[in-house]
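User: Write out your own:

AI:
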Amino acid sequence: MIEPRRVAAIVLAAGLSRRFGYDNKLLQPLGTKTVVATTVAALMVAGADPIIVVTGHDAAAIATAVDGFGTRCIHNPNFADGMGGSIAVGARELTNDNIAGAIIALGDMPYVKAETIAALIDALDAPDDIIVPTMDGRPGNPVLFGGKYLASLAACSGDVGAKAVLLQAADALKTIETGDPNIFQDIDRPEDLSD
C-alpha cells in the first residue's frame, strides 16, 4: 500500500452531448438525481477525494447539478477540442493536492457501482500502477492512474483522452475483474436511461 491513500476523481462533464438528440444527457433525470450527479455520488460513496468535475458545455447547469456533493468544478474553455484537454485541466487542478492517484471518470457513466470504484482504489499499491476494471476480461471504465502519471495526464490533448498514457505504460496495467457490466454502459441515447 502507498501513502497517502487519498485518490481523486476527475469527472469529464464538458462534452456537447450531440448524439443524445435533444438536451444535455448529463442533466437528464435519473432517479432522484441527474445523470452527472449520480456518477459523482458513486465516486463520493467509494471514497474518491477530491472530486474534480470538468465542465464545458452547459457549465453553469452542470455545476448546479453537482452542487452539494463536495465537488470542485473547473471549466475547460477549449472543451470542444476533445476530452484530452478536459483530462489535462482536471489533472492540473490536482497538482497541489496530496493524492495517491486519480480516477478518470466519464460523467455519462452513472451506472458504475460504488463498490467497483472502491475496488479500484483498494487495488492501488504503487505510484506507477494503472488500475483498469474488467468484466470477463474486457476492459472498461473508469480507470485509476497512480500519482506518477499526473504530469502525463496534465499534458493530454485532443480527442484521444488518456489512451496515449495507457499505451506508454502498458507494463504497469493491473486489471480488476469486477463482474460489473456497467463499466461498459454509457448514456448516448435517450433509450440508454433507465431507473
Remarks:
- The CA atoms of residues 152 and 168 lie 10 Å apart.
- The helical segments are 35-46, 59-65, 83-93, 114-123, 150-153, 163-168.
- The chain is about 25% helix and 25% strand.
- The chain has a mean pLDDT of 91.
